[in-house]
Amino acid sequence: MEVQASEIDKALIRRVASLLRGDPARAAEVRMRLQQAIGEEPKPGLKALLASAPLEGIDLTRGRDLGRDVEL
C-alpha cells in the first residue's frame, strides 16, 4: 500500500502498520484504539447484524413443498 504523509509521520505510520500486521490480539487492540481516537466506529459484521435482528413474533417455519406434478 502506498501512503502519502509528512516526513515527521513516516516512522509512526510504519510502526502502526507493523503492529496491525503482527500478533492478531495486539492488532485488534491497536485497531480498536485507533478507531476510538479518530472517532470511527467499527461496522458490525453479518453475524452481529443477524444476532441483533428483532425476530420475536416472526414465524420462520416453512411448509413442506413437494413441488408440482409434471408429466415428462
Keyword list:
about 70 residues, mainly alpha, 3 helices, about 45% helix, about 0% strand
Topology diagram in text:
Layout: H1 10-21, H2 24-38, H3 46-51
Helix pairs in contact: 1-2
Structure, explained:
- With 72 residues, this protein is an all-alpha fold.
- It contains three helices and no strands.
- The protein has helices at residues 10-21, 24-38, 46-51.
Shape, please?
A: elongated
Distance between the termini: 59 Å
Average pLDDT score: 87
Question: How many strand units?
Answer: 0
Largest sheet: none
Helix content: 40-55%
Q: In what range is the share of β-strand residues?
A: under 5%
Which oligomeric state applies? single chain
Q: Kindly name the structural category.
A: mainly alpha
Tally the helices: 3
**Regions with pLDDT < 50 over 5+ consecutive residues?**
none
Order of helices and strands: HHH
Radius of gyration: 24 Å
